[in-house]
Q: What sequence folds into this?
């Protein structure tokens, strides 16, 4: 394929649902002319309580789907899949694959924080990926990873009564604050949408949404690989889901303008 044809290919994004749109929103601001294919694996939602074998199988299916499109790169806009599946699948495809945790670790460590908290899904915390990746760049860093069980469902079921889950958010944040972290990483792409709740119990600037750092990393790497789309126009976006397209659009609404109804695959 000619290099200019390759540059015009879309970039694939995937997550278990709408959470990865938090990464796509940041990406769109920085690279508006890129074409994008987004896959929300809604039939398997939530990823956070799945086994490694299941998560590897989902990732392979989605990467094969992306490969057939074809795409020029894939962004794993999901911490859980990055933690559990990326290492297994990373050498199986000819395009670059960007996992959120591994892509951000170096830049976050360069900020020299001594104590870092991480909120993530159970599967991400069980993998210990945040700790092992951060220790590669700063062996003295102290990390506390806490699994936050029901937070994804609060985001995915927009409009549900959040009241009973508020107590859990308060409890988890207070538990994390006892660790006296310099920063707390929102280690699940769904969590930035709960910021209005978090700030009731901790200062806003303690939280890091890694998607800013992540999109900078992707941009630099695409540049380095000579893969940036040179077009001046706004790139196209296609959305795919594995169940409930209408639900996806509804849940996405508060934070991303999904312009076309997702295609069910
Ligand atoms: N948004 C994903 C993450 O970053 C997964 C959430 C889930 O489906 O449990 O980990």
A:
């Amino acid at each position: 394929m000619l290099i200019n044809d390759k540059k015009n290919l879309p970039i694939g994004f995937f997550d278990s649902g709408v959470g990865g749109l938090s990464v796509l929103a940041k990406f769109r601001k920085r690279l508006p002319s890129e074409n994008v294919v987004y896959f929300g694996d809604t039939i398997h939602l939530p990823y956070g309580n799945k086994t490694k074998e299941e998560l590897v199988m989902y990732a392979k299916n989605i990467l094969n789907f992306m490969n057939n499109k074809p795409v020029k790169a894939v962004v794993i806009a999901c911490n859980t899949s990055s933690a559990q599946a990326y290492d297994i699948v990373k050498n199986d495809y000819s395009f670059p694959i960007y996992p959120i945790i591994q892509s951000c670790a170096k830049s976050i460590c360069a900020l020299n924080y001594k104590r870092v908290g991480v909120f993530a899904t159970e599967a991400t915390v069980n993998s210990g990926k945040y700790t092992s990746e951060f220790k590669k760049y700063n062996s003295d860093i102290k990390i506390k990873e806490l699994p936050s069980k029901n937070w994804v469902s609060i985001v995915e079921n927009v409009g549900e009564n959040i009241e009973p889950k508020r107590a859990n958010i308060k409890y988890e944040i207070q538990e994390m604050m006892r660790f006296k972290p310099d920063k707390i990483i929102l280690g699940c792409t769904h969590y930035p949408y709960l910021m209005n709740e978090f700030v009731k119990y901790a200062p806003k600037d303690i939280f890091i949404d890694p998607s800013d750092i992540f999109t900078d990393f992707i941009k630099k790497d695409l540049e380095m690989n000579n893969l940036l789309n040179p077009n001046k126009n706004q790139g196209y976006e296609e959305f795919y889901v594995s169940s409930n397209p209408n639900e996806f659009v509804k849940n996405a609404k508060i934070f991303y303008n999904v312009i076309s109804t997702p295609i069910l695959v």
